[in-house]
Input
Amino acid sequence: MTTSRDTSSDITLLSAAAAVDAIERGELSAGELFEAYRAAAAGDELNAYLWVADEAPAPAGQDAPLRGVPLAVKDLFCTEGVPSQAGSKILEGYRPPYTATVVAKLAAAGAPLLGKTNQDEFAMGSSNENSAFGPVLNPWDRARVPGGSSGGSAAAVAAGSAPWALGTDTGGSIRQPAALCGIVGLKPTYGTVSRYGMIAFASSLDQAGPLTRDVTDAALLLKQMVGHDNRDSTSIGFPGEIELPRSGSLKGIRLGVPEELSGAGVGIEGGVLDAFNATLKLAESLGATVETCHLPHAPHALSAYYVLAPAEASSNLARYDGVRYGRRVENGGLVGMYTKTRSEGFGREVKRRIMLGTYSLSSGYYDAYYGRAQRVRTKIADDFRTAFAEFDFVVTPTAPSVAFELGAKTSDPMSMYVNDYCTVPMSLAGIPAISIPNGLSDGLPTGFQLCGPAFSENRMLEAAYALEQATGFEATGARIHA
Amino acid sequence: MTATAEFEPVIGLEIHVQLSTKTKMFCGCALSFGEPSNTLTCPTCLGLPGTLPRANAKAIHFGLMIGLALGSELAPRSIFHRKNYFYPDLPKGYQISQYDEPLCRGGQLGDVRIHRVHLEEDAAKLVHAGSSGRIHGSDASVVDFNRGGTPLAEIVTEPDVRSAAQAREWLTLLRTTLRQLGVSDVNMEEGSLRCDANISIRPVGSTALGTKTELKNMNSFRYLERGVNAEIARQETLLRSGGHVVQETLHFDPQTERITSLRSKEEAHDYRYFPEPDLVPVSTSDEMLAAARAAMPELPAAREERLQSLGISAASARQLAWRTELGDYFEAALAAGNPPVGAPIQPLANWVCNDLVRRVGEEDPNASQVTPAALAKLVGLVSEKALTVSNARLVLDRLVADGGDPAAIVEALGLGAMGGGDDVLDPLVDAALAANADAAEKIRSGNMKAIGAIIGHVMRETKGRADGAEVTRIVRHKLGL
Output
């Protein structure tokens, strides 16, 4: 919902799309906008940024489609000459010699790099408390977490120190922090956005996506992100173009509510479930049909995910060995150096997942763990295919709770992992999903998640836009707290 | 097991072949040919964070050609796996290889069956400072990433080899086949062809397999044969003294011919293979198969057969077919000589395989001063009896040294064979018989060996231009034999 708020006093209150329009009409200069955000990012008190640009880039972006509206980028995207540490001490100060495809594409499209945002180390976490550079604070309540792993990106967008941001989602790392910070987060179909230059967590699941203040901004940013990249063999590109949502109609749209992810016994917090059900009612009033559906294997998604993702991670993180770049701690000989470098360089959660993954790939255990998890993954994808034969979208609460207090779950990994309960199944299936703000519970944001078949981004954005217009929840709400 | 038991070796070979593509297996860097260290690298082959591999289509094409040459079954779909282990020459902490779904399965070359052929990337090169030349105990090691990521085809045989000599001979055939395919430089000394051997022995007559060891680092054909023999001997000594073979990976030191253990079975890596999630499966399309088939040259086995069918002896045909450059030279000479249909071509094969090879050794005769046309002409002069064999060898010496036209050399040196006419040779034979009365007497009494003295005399007089056979005929005639 657009407001009649006077934005002339604070240009950072403009949505990215509105800023693009204003620059296009000559009412706003890109340089001025960049400086306003640069100052906001430099003054950030949430620990959302790990690096902020010193100065605006050359004004080349002004004629490009995104008109120079700056972009906050999750730390794990490689940016040439700029620290890219994936939230880890083992890469402290690492400045890559090249830039990730999606960051380069967005810069070329007129979205210059504003800063690098804090994150859970190697994207492993749901609270941003696993960052080697300290936790990010939730702009709605600084005693609470912003979610993770793209917590810095979500907090920056919610707090208004970035117009929009790039995140990555492996099992919910865009959608969950978007929900906990009250903004929009979209995980595209696996393969639509190049992974080249994204420091990998779990290659078969990692996907870059936008974190934005509204659905239109998400579409506007995603439009410039998608595309085949011959440097990424798994990239497919997007058939056609991402379009900006316009109609806002839900007429005839069939929404499936999976019993397994949204039912009473699942463990969703009462306030979150109430907000979810209220939005379902609203959707019906707008002409959608809402029915219970089933994803029989979805309850096993988390287990499968915590076998597959750590398995890939244990291999992906083997390159941080102190030989070529990043931290090296000498300790008498090669094996000693390996051991000390990795012991000191990695945080607890990363080590835990390396151990888990190494174990599940070990000879004699592979079939029981990795092999079985892959079969579960196939079943989950089949479940979605079956559901989409009857429904346009499957909808769930994004996260089972609102933002929790810092430190509340750090001692119990399982309670932390459960945060991804509703987002992991879509990641395993490789399908697109979006979280949109869904009103407050106890004064804190909740998220409403829609997912659709592979490459259904345009239809999904339309539906999300319709709900956004109807609910009227504003992503700038956090500003009064921040 | 008794001390007198006869043992039979059972040997399987694992061959790594560096493919001569333009670029590396998973990035766009050029392959290294001794360039300064770390000049042929990029973020991908250095394993920098965020980089991704992409499979080299040409390497897959070469892999399919190898599969076709070995009669393998080509997988319609194959996948890459990650082989995980830590080592400084492995920048990602894993090697991208193939595991249970390789590009090619089965096949046969010569008398050895093929188990599989798969593609992978080569490791970088460690350079160790310090005395041992190996990583343990060296003062410092540096890594040269130029070689890292070079495409490799790994060819694994079934355990069909029964001796070190057979291993060497078969590897020669494989090398020729691969060279003929044009997929590799196949140079053992330079490391573009590497061979490991899995070796066990068992009592003759037994069909059970003994415990095997894996022998590495045999970087020449000679060392392969020596290393395998040394390991067979080691195992025999062990078994005869009541010991048993331990499954382990062994290192052969060609200087000392000593075999040392690299790691035992217990120390063997758990490579934690899993499907490489950064690469989509390789789908072998009909177009790719057609392209591989179209690129297939005639292979040594087929050439050997064809040459035999032209009337060349089995030994010559094998020699010409297994040494591609020799076969090429022979066929060029054959074409240049343009012999009439039905004329024997074995003499030309003999001249190439014996006289020419004796003079140029391991060198490529095509690069020598003797053009195939010149050799064809030389052989033609001999078969027309315009030149004796021994003088033809002298002419060949000159050709090897300076090149040129054989007829001109014959002319210049006055080596042309003397006509068979009795007018010319008769008086010379008479003189020879008169000067060697003893020999003449011996010949008369049936000792034909003595004719050598007569022929020698004539040859001296004619500077070798006389035809020995003709002289013999005249001698026999004159002595009434």
Chain B has three domains: 7-293, 300-413, 422-478.
